[in-house]
Every structure is written in C-alpha cells, then in structure tokens.
Amino acid sequence: MSAVRCIDLCKTYRQGDQDIKALDHVDMVITQGDLVCLSAPSGGGKTTLLNAIGGLDIPDSGEVWIADQRIDNLSKGALAALRLTQIGFVFQAYNLVPVLTARENVEFVMQVQGVPAGERGDKSQAILEEVGLAGLADRRPAEMSGGQQQRVAVARAIVSRPALVLADEPTANLDSRAADELMALFVELNEHRNTTFVIATHDQRVMAYAKRLIKMLDGRIVDDIEQHAA
Amino acid sequence: MNITLRLAWRNLWRQPRRTWLTIGAMVFSNALLVFVMSLQFGTYELMIDNTLKAFTGHYQVQAPRYKDDAKMRQVVPRAQQISSDIRRTTGLETVAVRSAAFALVSSEDRSYGIQVFGVDPVNEPGVSTIPGLVAEGRFPADYDAPEIVVGSVLARNLMVRPGDELTILGSGRDGSFAAAVATVVGIFDSGVSDMNRSIAEMPIGFFNDVFSMGDSAHAIVVMTPSLAVIEDYRSRLEAVVAGYDDVVLQDWDTLQPGLRQAIQADLSGAFFMYSVLVILVAFSVMNTQLMSVLERTHEFGIAMSLGLTPGRLGRLVILETSLMGVAGMLIGIVVGGLITIWFTYNGFSYPGMDQLAANFNLPSQFYPQVSALTLFAGPAVVFIGSIISALYPALRLHCLHPVEAMSAV
Amino acid sequence: MNDLKIIVTLAWRNLWRNHRRTLVMLSAIGIAAWAMIFMTSLIRGMVNEMLRDGIRSLPGHVQVHHSDFRDDPSVGNLVGMTSADIGTALADAGIERYSARIRVPAVISSERESRGVLLLGVDPEREVAIDAIGSSVAEGRTLESIDDNGVIIGRKLAKKLDTDIGKRIVLMSQDPDNEVADRGFRVVGLYEASLVAQEEAFVFAGRATIQRMLRIDDSVSEVAVVGEDYRVVAPLLTSVRAAIGGQDEVLPWMDIDRYLGTMMGVMDGFVLVWVIVIFLALSFGLVNTLVMAVFERVREIGLMLALGMRPASILGQIVVESLFLLALGLVIGNLFAYLSVIPLTDGIDISAVAEGMEMFGASSVLYPELELRDMTTANVVVLVLGLLASLSPAWRASRYEPVEAITKV
Fold this sequence. Notes:
Helix content of chain A: 25-40%
Strand content of chain C: 15-25%
Radius of gyration of chain C: 31 Å
Radius of gyration of chain A: 17 Å
Number of domains of chain C: 2
Oligomer: heterotrimer
Strand content of chain A: 25-35%
Shape of chain A: globular
Number of strands of chain A: 10
C-alpha cells in the first residue's frame, strides 16, 4: 500500500483571460516512509500538487489516494478530519498562532483533535523536546527565530503521529543554517518514525536531502530521480 | 486549561483599542439602560401606587353599570353586610363603604356643582390618603355628624375656612329633593389640583340621611397590603361578590384604565428607543468582528489546512464576542448600578419635571431603585444582540477556502 | 484645487475598498439617523397636537382676566372693559383673532341628571376666528349669534345627562349679588373634543343671552387672543396689554397652563438628549471603523508621504472619507425617515391606550410631524460630532513618519 497515489490529475486556473494548466495529467505514487521533494520553478505546479495531496484543493479531474482511502471525492468535513489527524502541514511562513506560546500552539491542535486535557501537557512537552525546543516552550512566535518557529510548526504537524507530512517551501524564509537544521529534523523524523515527507521547494540545498526528487514543469512531471540523502 | 478560551481572550487584545471601543459601546448602552429602566419602572410602580392609594383603592364592589353611568340609583344594597363579609373572608381591615352624589354646594358667597362623597370616618383612612392629608382643621370623626371636608382649591373657590357652613343641594337616590347644611371641619391638599378642586367628603351616616341611601352605597373600596399581592385576594373577593345579586367586583385597572395605558404607551415608546440602542451596539460588534475576521484570513486559512473546520473557527469568533459581551455586560451593570444608586440617594429631577409629576401623582424629585429586572434585562438583551450580530461574520467563514485564504495578505 | 480633487477621489474610492465594512457602517448611521428623526417626529407630533389642543381649550395664545379671576373664577371677577370697547380697542391695534367670553361655573340639569360644568357665553363668529372648541359641531347646529337661545354641549356630557338635541336643559349659576341665576335652554348642537374631560365640562351659549341671565350688562370674564405662532408670543402679549390690559392680568398660554408650557420645553430638551444618546451609541462603532481604516493603510499612507504628499492632504483625505460616510448614511436615514412618515400622515390609531394618553393630555391618534428644526438638529449633531470624532485618527495618520509607516508589518 502506498502512502500517496495520484492518478491522472488535472487542474486549470483562469488568470485574466488565460487558462493556466497547474496540473496536466499528473500520475504519481509515493511509498510509505519516503522523503520526496517536489521541485519546480515558481508556478510550476508543485504547490497545487501538494494541495491536492493534502485535500486542500480538489483537482478538476483524476484521483487522489491517501493510504487506502480515496480523498478527492470526500466532503469538506471529512477532508478537514483527514488533515487534522492523518496529514501534517508545514507552510512557508506564519504557521503559528501569534498570540499562543509554542506549547500552546501544539496543545491547541491537540485540543481540536480531542486529546484529553490531562495528556496534552505531557505530550506537547515531549514533542517540543523531540524537535529540540524544550526550553522555548513558553515563548511566543514573535520571540523566536524563523528556524525555531518552523520547528514548532513541525512539532505541531507531527503531534498526532500522522503518516504523512506535507511541507510547502518550509525553508524559504530561513537562513542557510536554519534551513539545514530544519531539513536534518525532517530526515530524523523520517527515519525514526517512518513518516512520509513530501516537500515542495525550489531550494537546491533542500533537494539534496531528498531520497527522491520529482521535478515538475508547467504542471507535468518531467523527472523522477531516486537519490541518496546527503 | 482550555486553550480555545485562552486563544479567544488573547485574540481580543491583539487590537486593544478596537476591543475597548466595542466594549465601550456596550458599557455605554448598558449603563444607560440600567439607569433609565430603574427610573422608569420605579416611576410606574409609584404612579400606580400613589394614584390608587389616593382614592381609588385596589378593588371596588359596585353595581354592574355604575362604573360607566354613575347614576345615583345604581347602588350596592346591604353595603355594610357585604363589607363585613369581605373582612371576614379576606382578613383585611382596609375595607370601606363609600357613596357619591352630585350636589350644588354653596358658601355665603359662592356656589359650585361638585361630587360629594359619603365616607366612613373610621375606615376611609385605610383606603384613601385624603383623610391623612387634611392641611387645616380635621377629618370628620363621627359617623353621623353634619360635617364636611373640601379640597384646597374648592375651599378657595368657595371662599370658606374651617368653621364656615356650606349648603348642600341635590337629588336623593329616589329622585327626591336632598338638602342639608354642613360645617366645614377640614381642608385637604391631595397634591393633585383636580382632586383639590372637585372633591368634598362627609361622614356616610350623614350622607345616607341627606341623600336617602338607606343601607345601600355606591361602592365598597378594598385595599390590599401592597401592589405585589393584589392578585392573591381576587378569588376570595370574587367569591364573596358572587354570593350577592347585582354587584360586581371591579379591579383598579378597570376603574382607572388610563393608568395601565399610560404606562403601556410610555413602555412602547421606551421599548422603541431601547431597541435602537441595542441595534446600534449590535452593528458596532458586527463591524468589529468582521474586521477582526478579515485580518485573520491568512491565519484562518492555515488553521483550516491543519484540519480546523469553519464551524470551529466560527465558534471561536462567537466565543470572542461572548467574552467581550460579558465584559461589556458586567462593567455596564456596575457603572449603571453605581450611577443609579447615586441618584437613589441624591434624587433625580430635570427642569419641568415637577409640573409633569403633579399630573401623575408623583413627587417632584425621583429616587430610582435598582432591581433585578432593571439591572439585568437591558444588558442581557445587549449581550444577546451582540452574539446574534457576530453570527454574520462567523457564518461567512463557511465560504472560506483554505487555499484562497492563505494567499491573502 | 487639483489637490482637492485628488483628496476627494481617493477618499471616495478608499471608502469602498472594504465595501462590507462600509455597508455595515452606513446601515448603522442610517438606522441611527432614521431613529433620531422618526422618533422625534412621533413625539413632536404628539406634543404639538397636545399643545394645539391645549391652546384651543384654553383657548388662545394670550388671555386677559381680572387679576383675581384665576384664584376665584366666579362671576364677581370680570374684565374691566366691556365687550364693545374691547372690540374697538383690538380692532385699532390691528388684532383680529380674539374672542371676548363669559366663563362661569354652573350646574346643568337635564330631566334626570345634574352635573357641574363650565358655562361659556360666546360670540360664535369670534369663536371660529380663534378656532376654539365648540366652534364646530359634530351634530346639530352651531350657535348663530350672541343672542342665540340654544346651547352646545359635548357629546359625552349629553350621554351623561341622558339628553339629546332638541331636549331642554336648565343652566344654573350665580349673579354678582350671589343670587341664583338660572335659565332654560334647548340643546341645539353636540360637539366633540379630543379630551374627554373637556367634552364633559364645556357648555356654550350666546354671550348676550348669558350676560342677561347673569345680569352683568356687557361685561366678560376673559378675552382670548390668538396670534401667528404659539411659540412666539411676546409681541402679541405686548400689543394686547397695551390695547386692553388696563388693571387686568394679561398672560401668555404657558403661564396659564403650566403643564403645557413645561411640556414644550421638556420636549425640546428630550429631542436633543435623544439625538445625542443615539449618536454616542453610534460613535463607538464610527471611531472604530475610522481608526481601523487608517490602520490598515499605514503602509500606503507612508508611501504617499514618502512620495511627497503633504500631511495636511492625508488629514484631508481621512476627514473627507469620514464626511462621505456620514453624509451618505444621513441621506439614507433621512430618506427612510421621510418614507416612514408619509404613510402615517393619517395618524397612528392608539385608541387602545386612549385613557392613558388622556392622562398625558394627549389624543388617541398619533400624527408624526417632521419639523425642519428637529431634522436639522439630528443631521447637524451626527455630521459635526462625527467629523470631530474622525479628527483624531486623521491627525494621527498625517503624523506618520514615512519610513516607519512603510515598513510596518
């Protein structure tokens, strides 16, 4: 059973008086435990593909399967439930609720997920330690560096132990050192927890960390390379 | 601790000035509502109480058509017997027999046609304040004494003082000629010039003699201990009345329809004004929450990506509104309550009030009282209105699409 | 001037950037303006009607009496001049709308009943000129001359007396020597007044007939004079005093009926208070909207300042934006108020609370009256205070440092 399966995905946007093919008959299979990078120049379709996989955006045609469940025909409510517990997201920026501390950001998602109040404290502390932020639990995003914020976002994304984590240009706002640290974290989580990572990026350094690199151009997959982690 | 609650609270303070202004709108309206309603409802009760205590009483037993026609021959037969019956059945002491006739009352120099009332010297003080408001002289004490008290304006018009004599000419119950001479023993000042101008009272024994009433009367006036318990006595009174032919029980509302209606009219006007206030506050809240939601479009988009449903986000917005609402309510009640209590001790009046007040049997300075109703009714409605107005921005979140939202700035 | 054009254009377009918020604000201002004007028009209508009725029943804007008359309204206290002389003097002074009348307390007796009333001996033509009650009838005919032998009574009085047109009644009063003065009359007409108390009290007969009955030659009890505007009485007062005042008391209506006089002042005060309260409730939302609108555009404003726009222009922009918002909202509100009042020109029937309204001295049909004075008050308050409220955020915006503003997150 594969983690992600995309079958003949198509999505077209209208911009002004032009039609833009964001996804042009995309077929893809990702196995569980893989660390995949989707790369493309801006507008190449990687974000659209990522959104499709994550159930954020329904493609015009084609199928999307997460594990053994087809998701492109689910209701909004079902998709939300999916994203809550089965899929983790890390975005480029502004991931966190600015008025909550790091710990509270994690606990908030846990509350929504239905984790009982008693367990939340311990679990959030454990997760923050796992991403290396034990001492910063009570800081607000504004009091943390970009890299630290992203790590909180990762902690939040994995707290329910989802099988799949999607990241959309997670290092775009980080300096190179922070970017490296973040990617190292991804790799570690990928190895220890067997979590599947799909990362959309155009940063070469990030691509170097991937086990598999899928290149896209104008909505089509043009290259699919297996490589060893750096 | 509940993260959502913490989040809602902190969200409010991202824009402190905006939150304070919104709460300010609520506090202003609430304080105003508390004060005005305390003033208003206290006034109503006082108005009814004063008017009824003055002369009308809480209930009257009368002949069926007397209320509308007021004819001499429409009497309550065996008045004393019914009166004793009422006392026995209800345990009330404040029951008095009364009669009325139109008469030409003449002093040495003047004559006036007025209503002359025959009242029970012993029991009338229990159902009317007039006996207690005799400013000069005294109220008649003897059941049969040929004495009379008149209102202050009437006394002036007739040019009489205690000790002077008045000639009374009228028609008796049977149509016969009624004539008598009575001595003015007292002059009363009821505070209401209409009453001071048109009422004279004499002992009922004397009255019955002059006007050939026999053992009949025109009304048995009943006063209950307070407005609050009036209804408790109704069934017992009805029971007594049912035991006699051709008499009915009239309550104060039927006897003085103007009272309840005046209050109703005032309430309607006030209700309109209160509604406008509530609506304006609701708009204020709606605008604030609209803006607050709009600012967080991107943030909400991310939240939805993480699996939060629009419903959940909507509930967050409602929660934020509730927190503001509670703050506005509590502060408003306190401020409004304090303002009202200040006036409870210092009295409230505005220019021209004394003239208006005299018309309604009210004192010229008013002391508002807070009550559970006046403290909470207005603010509660403002609170509810605020929640309802937040529904619009909250429900609009259902139209939010995560991807679009995240592309917002 | 080009600058102004830019400011205006920018202000207008900026208003519609967040059209939902602007619409909510416009609705709020519209509702506030509507509430101010509509409510005021209802109350103004009620009070104006009350005043008109009250003045009609006095009657007159100015009255002349013997100086003791108000304390002792009897036939002994007559005005110094005869009715003939009064007529000449007033004609010389150019005053046309007046009526010299007799007013004495009397007793009216029908076959079966008697009542105390106010007997008015009038000149029917003059009564029409001052639009007094009883100058027009609902049934039967009006008085034809001062020598008329008939009597006009209120319909409700007729009912109380069990009498009707064509039937005979006796009027009894006193002459200046305290002798009984009575005479039989035929009821020739029934009138209706808006207040029950008036309808039951006033009885009209020919002046000369009554003068003969009371043996008072050509004297009268009062002269009622009507001017152009009941609100502006001073000039009339002076001329009347000069023409026929003499030793007598010449008073304006607000001194004769203090309740009415006070009512007018209280109502004017009430209108202002109501308008200000509504505005204050609105102001919180208004300031919030403006502050937010400025806050959102910090970067843009910084950019404009950096590009060379003068701070005064920024201030101007915000103020003009606020002006547009207020003006538009006011137009909407005024329009709706006007549209609300039009279908109500036939009056709102509130006879369900007729007796209550009677207690206020008001009739049971409510006619809203849109007075320019009130509309102006409402619009000016909202516009001026609203603009004042916008000055603070506008000032703040013009004081931004360009670099800080542009880089604000």
